[in-house]
Amino acid sequence: MAFLTKDKIFSKKWLIDYAFIITGSFILAASFVFFITPHKIVPGGVYGISIVVHYLTKGVFSFWPEGIPIGFFALLLDIPLIIAGIKILGPRFGVKTIFGSVLTAVFTDLITFLRPVPADMPLVNDVLLSVIFAGVLAGFGLGLIFKSRATSGGSDIIAMIIAKYTHIQIGRLIIYVDSVIVLFGLFAFGDWAIPLYSWIVIYIVGKVIDITLEGADYNKALLIISKQHELIKNKILSDLDRGGTYLSGEGLYTGEEKRIIYTVVSRREVAVLKEYISTIDPDAFITVMDTKEILGEGFQSLNQ
What we know:
This protein is an alpha+beta fold.
């Protein structure tokens, strides 16, 4: 959750953060308008509730014949949630969170208004294809917002308030809250396909947020135990032009002291290194691990 920050106004960091919020809010809004709302998908959060209310109020109000605008109703829900969050949890929601919530709501209704076709007409008739694109766009948009140290509000705040009194993990509570909202869509529309598609959107959104925040890293971390560690070290340093670290270890059964090589290489270099090790020490022990993000010399700078 975003804490109050002291970024200098109009500094480079300030401009980048707000550029992320504006871009992310627009992409998130576009995912709602073009892919989620027309198929009555309920992606959890305040926008999931707003989509249900939008369809249930269709034809109820003369000034809103198509139903209560989704962005407007989402903002009505977000405002009291943010106020409650500040009172119960403290000043954890900065101006960025409020700005992002308002901007997403405005973009959602503005794009809906400017669409040359009816709002309930899908851009793509294939529901599964729409769900996939919705998840990718919404996840990327939210990822950009999170990069600015803002939050999407909504179910995040509800989960944090419940967590304060129940001590249940926040991540688990967010899933619970979003699932309840998804089931709300089932009861409102009476179609089992809606919650199933909605859960697919929620899953994809989570994965794309992770990729946006951490990057799509194709590197692998290796732990290598071999009696030929000197030759392997030279291969890594000279041929692969990579670095590494020696770790000290001891065999559990033999009690023999061992030198363990820890290194990070690309996927292609993993194959090269494994083939080389197999020729000089078939009895070597290699552990290959996926990496989420590599920071430091030779990879992404910590300052970035």
